[in-house]
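PROTOCOL LOG
Step 1. Enter all chains and additional molecules of the complex.
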Amino acid sequence: MSLTDELLGTVAELRRTVADLHGELTRNELVAWTAGNVSARVPGRELMVIKPSGVSYDELSADTMVVTDLHGRLRDGDLAPSSDTAAHAYVYRHLPDVGGVVHTHSTYATAWAARGEPIPCVLTMIADEFGGAIPVGPFALIGDDSIGRGIVETLRASRSPAVLMRNHGPFTVGRTARDAVKAAVLVEDVARTVHKAFELGAPAPLPAEDIDRLYARYQNVYGQR
Amino acid sequence: MSLTDELLGTVAELRRTVADLHGELTRNELVAWTAGNVSARVPGRELMVIKPSGVSYDELSADTMVVTDLHGRLRDGDLAPSSDTAAHAYVYRHLPDVGGVVHTHSTYATAWAARGEPIPCVLTMIADEFGGAIPVGPFALIGDDSIGRGIVETLRASRSPAVLMRNHGPFTVGRTARDAVKAAVLVEDVARTVHKAFELGAPAPLPAEDIDRLYARYQNVYGQR
Amino acid sequence: MSLTDELLGTVAELRRTVADLHGELTRNELVAWTAGNVSARVPGRELMVIKPSGVSYDELSADTMVVTDLHGRLRDGDLAPSSDTAAHAYVYRHLPDVGGVVHTHSTYATAWAARGEPIPCVLTMIADEFGGAIPVGPFALIGDDSIGRGIVETLRASRSPAVLMRNHGPFTVGRTARDAVKAAVLVEDVARTVHKAFELGAPAPLPAEDIDRLYARYQNVYGQR
Amino acid sequence: MSLTDELLGTVAELRRTVADLHGELTRNELVAWTAGNVSARVPGRELMVIKPSGVSYDELSADTMVVTDLHGRLRDGDLAPSSDTAAHAYVYRHLPDVGGVVHTHSTYATAWAARGEPIPCVLTMIADEFGGAIPVGPFALIGDDSIGRGIVETLRASRSPAVLMRNHGPFTVGRTARDAVKAAVLVEDVARTVHKAFELGAPAPLPAEDIDRLYARYQNVYGQR
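Step 2. Run joint prediction.
Step 3. Record the structure below.
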């Protein structure tokens, strides 16, 4: 496959968007060293744009991003793709509405993942954004489709755009890469707040009907139309 | 209602002030993504200036702020107002001395709110600024006056300019928007310090008469006259 | 008393030093809003330079600093001095080797102060810098010499340049204002580390003879001669 | 020994590298005041480049770095070397593959060190980077080879590039100074995450065979070839 001019324009724009969005990971202190990555699906194509492996966040630019197909094979770019590429690719193959994927090892979300405990829905913000408890996915080794499959199966059983992969860390998805980054920021924010709440007591989850009303309202009313 | 020239001058200044004060929310790490807002009453008018809904803090400017009446109806500006506008408006309608309102989901204040526990007055700073324990307001769903009413009833029963709305987060008020921001910064600061104190023990509250003396002194002596 | 030209030169330099050192308080996240202050003794004079009351850290400059005598009476400057001036002044009157004083409400140091617990000497850094456990001073109300007296009596019974004033926060001293700021930075650093250590266990204090050797070495060997 | 022109070129480059890498210590909040240092071995020489003692991080530059031999004696530079020079030098003398050493008192790693507890391998990131639990070294006083010997003996019994020196803090090593800094950043990151995980439960360590597979893969596949 060679990239047409039109496709090259779309890809160029996505390379910039994805490179810039990594700045939100550092600004929100979700990542240490190079341990986190953002990708975006190339709309209508079997392609995605993703971070190269092991490159510092201040060396990232549109040019250093790489393009792979949805089996993780390099299609454009000079560097090797993120070591998490297979997981991102699996998600795009199996969840057609997902346009962006983010993976971090952010502290509090990863602490819940290390214990294998979902984050209970004890805050209106969790009901708004995640529609209920934030679920835990299975422990899976890197190297084949295990991580991707664990993400997809867990997300399909939930309204949450975030999954806490056991002993590993959070993966988030969104309609766009920016939405997935938002979910990565907010899953760490609520993971931290709920952690603090449980350090000194045991807050009760919100009633299911209140969660449903908050979630429905937020998905339909919040932001600019 | 159309805005007169004089009123436009006042509103223009408040738009800038309110936009700038959101910078204190990010600088003090009180907000994640777009989850927090500042408003100011337009003095002598049934109007307020407030953040637009779902807009990033680095895109905020005097121009993007919106003006609503005290029932939350848009009067000036191109964007939809904050989804918390009804709560701000209710506070201005019922507490005539309040000139500014702030809402955040800051981590530690929200953790106390998730447990539904007031922050006990175990520090001289809490006596100075809040005049006693920082109270908890009821759980209330967004969509009508429930949140606003919960804020007002709780603040009326206390000297505190901050209320921890249960399972939700803090709201603060002040004579000006800047004063309300100061209360938002300090409620998180003392929520964090008292949280840390209780993690390793159980500090005793200050005696009521000491709280009264500290509060009286601070309200009358601190700062520049 | 009117200030001579020579004295004015010294004072002008100290105003700049003290103003700049407040930047270390914010950079090291020791203060929220305006709640912390640095002062310096004017060498050989019954004078000190201190922060004005209730002024933001980004508005501080050499010009806005104020000069008081060692009973807290304004001698030079346009603004009212810090509300903690009496405590600083008392320290200078009673501890002639002290050239700088710092007061903050830094989170972890204040949490130990809220419980009234000294920070035990479980780290080589504490032995180096503080020469043993960091002591707690009495609860004292602002308004007379109680706070200053509590600071001085506690410091005299210890090698530590820091004291945790009960239910209030840390005060630190040094040969210079910069040394006092260093102690304010390090007392928060070790307060936090020891807090974390105790959250998951109970580290044992270092043996007294090791503390003595570390303290002696550090006071004589560290840094540039 | 006088330095030849060629050696001076290598040393000049290492001075800059080592000075710059201290910026990663502050950016990643691993150090308070001047309490942390980076060194690099001069390849093929019995020399190392290290931070001067007690100098602020913003005053560090290529010029202020110092060169010592591998017994800590000053060979080039105007300032006294770090008070931890003997420990760095011992590591270079005994571990020939080590090209860089870092020492910090980073909060969470030091908290584990204060309790004398290794950080258990409950996260894939720990398996990847450290190949198992992060070990604790003995308590040792500064002043002779005790600290260096404790570091070397502990690292030889482990795959980890980090050791938690008891009641003191972490030391890390790497093929280069940059690798040692990476290990210093990541040991604090996982120390924090595992601390948070244990605050609310007791995560189980990964099975030894999974740790081996993750470690082998990461050492061979991650990053750019």
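Step 4. Note key features.
The CA atoms of residues 12 and 62 of chain C lie 7 Å apart.
Helices of chain C lie at 5-27, 85-94, 107-115, 124-130, 146-156, 177-199, 208-221.
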